[in-house]
Amino acid sequence: MTVRDIIIAMIALGIASVILAAFILLNVVCYRLQARRKRKAEDYLIKKYVELLSPGKKKVSDMWLLKAYVAMSEQVVFTEEMKLRILMDFQASGLIDRLLRHLKSKNVYFRKEAVFYLGVFDSAEIKKELLDLLRQEKLEHVKIYILNSLKNKIDQYVLQSIIDSLVGSRRFYQQRVIGILQEHLLRVEAHLQNIFRRPEMEIKETFVDLTNIYYRKEFKGILLDELNAIEAFLEGEENKTFLPLRKQRVLRLYYQILRALANVYDTPLAYDKYLDNLDIEVVKIATESFANQTDFQAVKQLLRYADGSPADEIRAHTIIRILEGNLNLFSDTLELVKTTVDPDQKTLLAHVLSHKIEYLMLKLVHKDNDYLALLMQLMIEKGFTADLIDFLNRNQQKDVEKRLYGILAPLVAEYHAFRQEMAEYLREDLRDLFGLKKPKAEATRKNPAPEIHKTRWLILWLIFSLVSIPIVFVLANLGTIASMTLKDFITGYVIAINKGFIVYYLTVNLVYFTIALLSLLGSSNRRRNYLIKNNGLLFAKDMLPSISIIAPAYNEELSIVESVHSLLNLNYPKIEVIVVNDGSKDATLARLIEHFDLERKNLGKSGQIATKPVKAIYRNKYLPSLTVIDKTNGGKADALNVGINHASSEYICGIDADSILEKDSLLKLMSSMLDHDQITLALGGSIVPVNGCIVDRGQIEAKHLASSHLARLQTIEYLRAFNISRTGFATLKSLLIVSGAFGLFEKRILTEVGGYLTVSSLNKDTVGEDMELVVRITRRAYETGLDFRVDYISQAKCYTEVPEERKSFFRQRNRWQRGLVDILSYHRRMILNPKFKQAGFIGMPYFFVFEMIGPLFEVQAYLAIFVGLALGILNIEIVLLLLLVTVVMGVFLSILSLFINEQDGPSFRVGDIAKLILYAVIENFGWRQLISLYRVKGYLSSLRETNAWGQMNRVGFKQ
Asked: Three-state DSSP class for 588?
């Protein structure tokens, strides 16, 4: 290229950047105009159809009126007469006919959009067209839209079509059907028993699930017939329906039949074949069927089955429920302690009585010290002491304290584990009374043994990066190198490196630009799909899966309470919040206990994933959606694994404890599952720096750009990483990273792969646990032939504090690079492996070439540029080309990422946008080069096998 060509290219990209910047600023005006159109459409509808006034000239399109009508239908009750007038007017406009034509479109989005808008109308013609589409439609996620539009129109004919649509469907679709039928079937006089006697397994599953929530007398006979058929099959009898299926699927149907019979149809399961079954799930169902009984014989019968297995925990909680239903049985249960000899039965009684410690004290503390001492010794011996210690901490009566001291003092001396627990959790004055000292904090985790193969692999690539350029230069100049002077050699070598660097950076930017175009397309598709979902769809019964949010916390006292409030107040149908305190050295745990009035509970099951020990579990019975777990320090990944073990939901959302989600973030994230038929294994959302924002009780009250230059530079970097890289890779089906600050995973796949990578779980540690988990899940999915999806939803935003201190920032970047290097080494057989499809040919090679090896070459190129400029070796063409590929193209891509971000709605004020555009220019002069240097430092740190996390100093949220 000539100098003129280069300058023209620079000017063209500069103009393009200015135009993009102008569009970003104009975007704010566009959204205001859209809001104005929405108000005009609503005013028009209210005046014409509600107030029956002349609305005047229509100032918005029919489509805007339809959007407004759909939105208003969730808040305004329109009479049948109003609905009919509105329908007739839309038919007259031709909009209804256009939407009916779209039902037959090959474009999936057009079909879903048409279904969404047509569903608001009550019309026989529309209903017929929707039913025709339901019978013909192959895609289940489109069928879900159709079901949602038909849910208020269910009759015998519609029901039959819905049941027919179940044949050959996935479990995900069946659960959506069950939720819709549960809410709307009660209004239908339909002959259901004939429909549900069909042989197809999908229909059997749906019927049985429905019987667990919907009572009809005639269903009991069908359930008993199915129960007998499954039990005969499990005993070896052939069955054409069950024989081709996985045993686990048949067992699931069996469990659901037992639940329905026990809980809905009052069928007793008080038989040995259920209560003493080898399958713990069967034992659980049969045992819990006793919960509503008030007969002491039920307590004695359950006690008889005590066997020291995990099933005893189920038996204990069922007995507790029986006692709560009839407190008169408590005295009889106390007497059992005196007569029971079997050690397993004694353990079960200790578990039961430990949950009723206050009642126990009220009954015995002033009456029978010897008996109370016997009960306390039993509880201490069996390890059920959490409620006892909690009672001691809350008790304010000195006479009770004195009596209990007399009983417990010898027991404290006798039982070492109880003594340690008292020293850890007893309040200070009582600790002094018992002569106990608060134990010192345990040492943090140790690093695993060095990985020789990884170190060799890294050294090999380091050597390659250092010698490949000289070797290529020598080979390219083999004929003339002997006659070169030292000056000629240096000049030629420096120019060659710079030319190679130009080609490299041009390639990188072209790759980024391609990914950016895919991101623009992917982001637009996700935004359009979200706009055709309303609360009626998203909050329909069981439409979206349940979520357990796990927030690992280590020294987060400045922001932990606000973060938990944010999580508890999220706009989502079914969530639970699990905060895992990973051995914090500050007041993180104390603040949580005090603010949420938490009580310590006995430890339950440990779960499938091996972790560092759990010390305590805290709950508040009036806040059942919050659990706080205290554990010994093992790192973030280990804390997440503890949360997974205690989670009860279908999906796990891992989030940093210092992060704040927008109120609708989970809704936007999970609603994407309704846009495809693949199994969603992992999802990620956007990470936005919270620095500068105003936070009140866990909610973002005002969005401002940080005042710190370091935080502003990171904001631009985050926009580029999330809005270009992740959306683009998700569109290419090769996304291999979901941010640890906000990531969501299917629980089943998490437990199947062994959770996050730790020494405890998989005998290896890493500081890049978020990306490593996605790579391992992807690897597992390809190896087992799953039709899956790992997705990124830019509209779902999570705000987190970024470092404003240089030391913290560089420690963070060093950790990120070490994590990346470790993951690529650990999963290196995936690179260019056709078995792993897009992940092997796009995702892994990208990270290997541009993120791991690239910086090693970039640093050499920067040195060559410096030498070339200092010695005057570089000519004007090379200098201009370097500016073009590093600065001008970099500015354009950064502004493009800001443009993509603002398409979802204004995220920043106009003044802040202008500042970010300025920083998009500034970052190319030193900042990005500095990041490359620290990537190289991270690579070298990986050779030393350091797994140190590197603490970030928090400043807390701005109130």
From this structure: helix
Tokens read off for 80: 């049948």
Structure tokens at 291: 């919960």
Helices (H), 383-485: 386-394, 398-414, 416-425, 428-433, 452-476
pLDDT at 947: 56
199: its two tokens: 């042989």
With a CB cutoff of 8 Å and minimum separation 6, the contacts of 721 are none
pLDDT tens, position by position, 506-525: 999 999 999 999 999 999 99
Q: Enter the tokens of residue 705.
A: 């750009």
In the block, which residue shows the tokens 């005042």?
Answer: 707
Angle at 63 between CA 61 and CA 68, to 5 degrees: 100
Tokens (6 digits) for 222: 């069908």
The mean-pLDDT minimum among 49-58, 362-371, 395-404 falls in 362-371
H or E element: which one contains 567?
Answer: helix 560-568
The neighbouring-strand residues paired with 612 are none
* Residue pair 771/777 in contact by the 8 Å Cβ criterion: no
Neighbour-count burial for 344-376, b at 16+ CB within 10 Å, e otherwise: ebbbbbbbbbbbbbeebbebbbeeeeebbbebb
Integer Cα distance of 564 and 551 in angstroms: 9
Residue 904 DSSP symbol: T
Q: Which residues contact 258 (CB under 8 A, 6 or more apart)?
A: 227, 269, 274, 282, 285, 286
DSSP class of residue 841? I
- Closest by CA to 146, choosing from 831, 674, 560, is 674
CA distance between the termini of the chain: 55
Backbone angles phi, psi at 5, to 5 degrees: -65, -40
Gap between the Cα atoms of 573 and 537, Å rounded: 11
pLDDT band at 400 (very low <50, low <70, confident <90, very high): confident
CATH number of 509-943: 3.90.550.10
CB within 8 A of 65, min separation 6: which ones?
A: 41, 44, 45, 58, 90
Give per-residue pLDDT as tens, 602-631.
776 667 898 888 888 999 988 999 999 999
How many residues are given for the chain? 959
Q: What is the DSSP letter of 450?
A: P
Report the candidate in 683, 659, 669 with the shortest Cα–Cα distance to residue 745: 683
Which residue, 768, 877, 888, 777, is CA-closest to 824?
768
E strand or H helix at 905, and its extent? none
Q: Do the beta carbons of residue 767 and residue 818 sit within 8 Å? A: yes
Closest residue by Cα to residue 442 from 612, 637, 607: 612
Rounded Cα distance, 814 and 935, in Å: 6
Q: 577 in helix, strand or coil?
A: strand
In the chain, where the domains are located? 154-267, 356-439, 509-943
Q: What is the 3-state secondary structure (H, E, C) of 273-337?
A: HHHCCCCHHHHHHHHHCCCCCCCHHHHHHHHHCCCCCCHHHHHHHHHHHHHHHCCCHHHHHHHHH
Task: Report which DSSP code applies to 630.
Answer: E
Does the pTM of the predicted model rise above 0.85? yes
Q: How many CB atoms are closer than 10 A to CB 423?
A: 16
